[in-house]
Amino acid sequence: MEFVNPEGLRLDGRRPMEMRQLRAEIGVVSKADGSAVFEMGNTKVIAAVYGPREVQNRSQQSNDQALVRCEYSMANFSTGDRMRKPKGDRRSTEISMVIRQTMEACILTHLMPRSQIDIFVQVLQADGGTRSACINAATLALADAGIPMTDIVTSCSAGFLNGTPLLDLNYVEDSAGGPDVTVGILPKLDKVTLLQMDSKLQMETFETVMQLATEGCKAVASYIREVLLENTKQLESRRGV
Amino acid sequence: MLQSKSFVKKTKQGKVLKVVREHYLRDDIYCGAPFCKVCDVAAARLDSNASTIIIVDTNVVLHQIDLLENPAVDNVVVLSIVLEEVKNKNLAVYNRLRALCSNTLRRFFVFSNEYHKDTYVKIEPGESPNDRNDRAIRVATQWYQHHIGAAARVLLVTNDRDNKRKAIEGGIPAETVESYAKSLGQPALLDLIVQAPAEDVTMEDAEDLRPSKRKTIYAEHKPMSEITSGMHRGIYHQGKLRVNRYNPFEAYVGSESIGDEIIIYGRTNMNRAFDGDIVAVELLPQDCWKEEKSLAIANDEDDEDDDVHLAPSSADDAPRVSHPSQISIGNKSDMPTRPSGRVIGIIKRNWHTYCGSLEPMPMPAGDGGIAHALFVSKDRRVPKIRIQTRQLGNLLDKRIIVAVDSWDRLSRYPSGHYVRTIGEIGDRDTESEVVLIENDIDARPFSSQVLACLPPLPWSVSAEDIANPIRQDLRHIRVFSVDPPGCRDIDDALHCTFLPSGHFEVGVHIADVTNFLHSGTPLDDEASQRGTSVYLVERRIDMLPKPLTEDICSLRADVERLTFSVIWEMTPEAEIISTRYTKAIVKSCAALSYVEAQARMDDSRMADPLTTDLRNLNKLAKIMRQKRIERGALTLASAEVKFQIDTETHDPLDIGMYQIREANQMIEEFMLAANISVAKKILEHFPPTSLLRRHPTPTNDMLEPLIQTAASVGLSLDVTSSKALADSLDRAVGDDPFFNKLIRILATRCMSQAVYFCSGDLSPPEFYHYGLAAPVYTHFTSPIRRYADVIVHRLLAASLGICRLPDIFQDRPRLTGIADNLNYRHRNAQMASRGSVELHTLIYFRKRPTYTEARILKIRANGFIVFVPKYGIEGPVYLTSRGQKGGGEWIIDEQQQKIKKTNGEVSYGVLQPVRIHMEVVESQPNRPKLELTLVC
Amino acid sequence: MVGLSLGEQTFIKGGIDQDLRTDGRKRLTYRPIFVETGIIPQASGSARVKLGATDVIASVKAELGKPNPSYPDKGKVSIYVDCSPTAEPSFEGRGGEELSTELSSALERCLLGGKSGAGAGIDLSSLCIVRGKVCWDLYIDGLVVSSDGNVLDALGAAIKAALSDTAIPKVQVSANAPSDEQPEVDVSDEEFLQFDTSGVPVIVTLTKVGGHYIVDATTEEESQMSSAVSVSINRLGRICGLTKRGGAGLHPTVILDMISAAKHVSEQLMNKLDSEIAAAEACDEMES
């Protein structure tokens, strides 16, 4: 199939190096300590953060750092074909773990010993790049909850189809069977915290694809900073500071 | 880096899956006109002083692609919506349109109207997708009009009346294809236009002035819904229609649903289907299966001649005999087992362009007007095609290309249009091009991207190559090559060293093509597409560019070359002790011809080391050959002919059978051995993804003609196995020395050809190579001229850990696709070679009427078919004039295959020699053909 | 769940007694309701309803299926509710399952009528395509994103809005198919059927706290309830379904009293919801 036409346009009209439209909103779940919606094109996820709070299961309590937990779930209606799977399948468990590890790496857990932070991400719509969207949403929700972090984590994926590196694959492109490189970075520290890839890719090609995904992460980071800044300004004005 | 605007397009796919896709609209899509002040002109494709920019709609592209391909039409804007629609409707036309758009000599520009923020239109409630797309085309045209302004005229070309009306109402200039073509002022362009069916009717009227006489000739095609439900219920069968190459009134549809081939007799039952169409077939009642045949043949309006042609070299070239046993036995109670049927609908057309000439006809009165003519394709499987032309006088003596447009059920012949002229009929260059076109052979020069992949010239072995640990330095070894005289693309060389142990070290060194041909490069893609070099009588069409073919890869004498070598240690009894594979560097000491090699071996005075090597090799080869024959390999024969070509005029000077010498067989033996060794090695390492070559065991049905012919001369052949057949062929010695060879030639043509396949697609017993009696076989020894060998080189290199296996080997369907393409190309190359030989035979005999000896192959009602060994051709000898039943002064017994003069003076039987006269006659102007007559 | 001090509890109860609840509402007043439709483009219909801090999403997906042999001329509808842990950390893992099941069955009872589908808010026979062979199966999925009490009413409203947003493709059945086979169905991608949702009831839950009952209770208020009655009432004021939750027994006259109060409240809610749905759909249309 032709994913990039000779005019250099992808199926949805983007050029190879372009990301889908981003949209983020902070504070969507009012009862949570922090929450956010993050959209990358048609992929839409909600993240809610509860904590830091008392550790629910005492045996897991740690005396020198906070316990970070994460659960990833997909709504039945989030995929084109209705999902009938119960919660906690292997894929969800794996993604939960990936998100927890990625977020744990930037949370200053030593500042909150004997406490627990829960991150819940709920996929409302899946159209490729759910992992990245979840991480971006979780970052925003953690920031909204005021949890101390070394840096924000942002994530984006890139692939390689028709001999062209493509940024931010949507579902159709993702299902093409080509490689899908998901990268998460700490933009300020310029460090990669997450790197996953399926399928095969030549060494040299991998480098350019990863480079592209990293560029995508940086673009997401600048958008997230904008959203956070705007949110803070609103908080300020609401409090009349 | 972000988009301009987001949009959501909802589409439905499959049953109820709702698919939502984003659709970004952009503001960075440019108009493609170099004089534009607003747009980025870097990618502009239109002419800088274009006076008119035309925009075509989908139907214009679909039907008038031949017109668009004419260089007179330029400055065309192709909208992305048009591309998309064309792609969905006809992939072949889409590819041609894409080729136009990327051709730098043409001014075709693709405008992505679907992604442009000003030209994207949303479907309105109640609007059909077709109407929406037409509107999109108009909106884009209008955008161009406003955007370009006074700089150029923007014209919408459409044959859709409604679309044209709406465009004109909206102030958009619009014209039909015909009026646009007229405005270009080249009358010949009008021939390229496909006529609308409405005009077809008037044309029919012109042919026959009494409309009442117009009758339905073909049954109506059933609608698709009925076909689908009929197939569900098992009353219709789907399959690809294959027309018999030698009898265009007989076709076969291979049906999976009944697991057999359905025979279709006669054009009425074929119901307007072409060769290669996917059709739906209904079976005829079983009691009609037999009668249909005689009925169909009686019905056939134009009984075509059996031309003199090159003797077939395999069953794939030979005419099919559907039921020889039945015809000869004529047993009434024996019901035919082969189902016959009729076409009730066409699921997918395989129409393309055809090469041929117009049927000779008198010039109509009033020159310059529109004439109707019948086109006769060179491919006999294609029916005659009716065309309209304004240049009849010009076309009558030309080879032309014609495309099919439609086939009305009221019309005996399909309608088409003229596409282009190749040249004069009978002209050698024209006819050679026809051979290439007919066989889908790409003889174009290599593109600059392909040539860019070549190493810089002059090339020589570098110090790095020598230092490379994977490459063994064999330059000190006495390596030589033996090839036909004048061979420039030498892919193989040999060496033979006597070891102190009393054994021999024998090396087969093959040009290391993959060292230069890397997977995934344009060069590799091109080679993979071409699949093989094509050898015509007067020229060679290379698979790889000339520098690789004749220089860098060719193992010429006295230069250092890179090779991929197979080295055996053999006992003097030709037992292989060990096999070694390595990349190497060799320096050939001599490039011998077969004649030279043979002469050296035969000349007892010569005792130089090279000659000794040759003799040793020959000794080994003879033993190997004997062993192979004991295993059951067949010694087959074919009537290959060789031309001597005048270097100035390229006309054939002499023609004769190609002589096979011991030296040929010696080289062949080692190549076979190398191929078998490599096949084993790669299969062991890559069981599912090896490329092998198999030769299917012929069925008894296929061998039937051979058994019959042999029986009629009192010879019984045992065909139970290849070993039994080989033995009985050995025993078939007649009175004259040529008899055995003749039988072998007949046996060869009963076999189908060997084919390439991907090892994962078949089970190991099916890998068997019947002719060579080898359980596995592949092609390794000619990578310069066959792509299969290139793939095998890569597999072998990977199995030795020399390099990584390219990604393509992970993808079995693609590998199967490559194998299929190789088979197709291989077969076409052979057909083209045969076509070229036939052509040159005709040219040769044009000035040289000849008397010669021929052999009777088969006796027919009005004469017999002969085979002329000296020239490798076969054809009919008529004893009575056509149409006349009975033998006149001859008594012909088809059952017994005997022929006798009424006065009993002369009688002939099958395989008997006869003297004939060969002469080129022109019974119709511009249609020369070879005629064979009996000399008593 | 909600840890409330004794003082807080007294404050809530006292407020209800005086018809002045902690957030300033009267006993029979709803929180502001906010409806958004078409938020899940991949679904046949969808809606999001916010009731104060309660936030739910409902989606409708239509699939072709085979009718139940007992009711060959009716389509099938099923409702599944999922409580996302984003709404409440205790829903994590399988923690939300009990509540999900309770809500699902309550909604099915309130909206779908009995097993036969008689008395359902949706006309099930309109979902039938070929009697006994092909029908539409509607899968209604609810997701609780944020919860601050009265989730059932919010889900009921979201489902009603989602159904009115639902467009089902028109279906062509090939006429000449033999009667013993599954017919070939051709789904149109241009024409859609809309549902008549005027018959879909709204759900009003009355929560008994102390001696009074209130509507649209928050989580804090729900923690103080003795029992609750959910009544689904259609436009004509007919009761379509009824569920009682909570352990404490109720006097039959109190139940009747609660039902009549529910009927009264339902009219206001229905009108409010309809106008919200209409506004949301208009907004949705303008966007696309």
Automatic annotation (TrEMBL), chain A:
InterPro entries: ExoRNase_PH_dom1 (IPR001247), ExoRNase_PH_dom2 (IPR015847), ExoRNase_PH_dom2_sf (IPR036345), PNPase/RNase_PH_dom_sf (IPR027408), Ribosomal_Su5_D2-typ_SF (IPR020568), RNase_PH (IPR050080). It comes from Salvia divinorum (Maria pastora). Residues 18-148, 151-216 form the Exoribonuclease phosphorolytic domain. Keywords: Cytoplasm, Exosome. CDD domains: RNase_PH_RRP41. Belongs to the RNase PH family. Its main location: cytoplasm. This is Exosome complex component rrp41. GO terms for biological process: gene expression; nuclear RNA surveillance; nuclear-transcribed mRNA catabolic process. It is found in: Cytoplasm; Nucleus, Nucleolus. GO terms for cellular component: cytoplasm; exosome (RNase complex); nucleolus.
Automatic annotation (TrEMBL), chain B:
One of its GO terms (molecular function) is exonuclease activity. It is found in: Nucleus. GO terms for cellular component: exosome (RNase complex); nucleus. Keywords: Exonuclease, Exosome, Hydrolase, Magnesium, Nuclease, Nucleus, RNA-binding, rRNA processing. It comes from the Eukaryota. Its cofactor is Mg(2+). InterPro entries: Dis3_CSD2, NA-bd_OB-fold, PIN-like_dom_sf, PIN_dom, RNase_II/R, RNase_II/R_CS, RNR_Ribonuclease, Rrp44_CSD1. SMART domains: PINc, RNB. Gene3D superfamilies: 2.40.50.690, 2.40.50.700, 5'-nuclease (3.40.50.1010), Nucleic acid-binding proteins (2.40.50.140). Residues 52-165 form the PIN domain. Coiled coil: none annotated. PROSITE patterns: RIBONUCLEASE_II (PS01175). Residues 471-802 form the RNB domain. Its main location: nucleus. Residues 298-340 are annotated as: Disordered. One of its GO terms (biological process) is rRNA processing. Belongs to the RNR ribonuclease family. This is Exosome complex exonuclease RRP44 A. It comes from Salvia divinorum (Maria pastora).
TrEMBL record, chain C:
SUPFAM superfamilies: Ribonuclease PH domain 2-like (SSF55666), Ribosomal protein S5 domain 2-like (SSF54211). It is found in: Cytoplasm; Nucleus, Nucleolus. Gene3D superfamilies: GHMP Kinase, N-terminal domain. Keywords: Cytoplasm, Exosome. The keyword Mitochondrion does not apply. GO terms for cellular component: cytoplasm; exosome (RNase complex); nucleolus. It holds the Pfam family RNase_PH. It comes from the Eukaryota. Residues 30-169, 199-263 form the Exoribonuclease phosphorolytic domain. Belongs to the RNase PH family. This is Ribosomal RNA-processing protein 42. It comes from Salvia divinorum (Maria pastora).
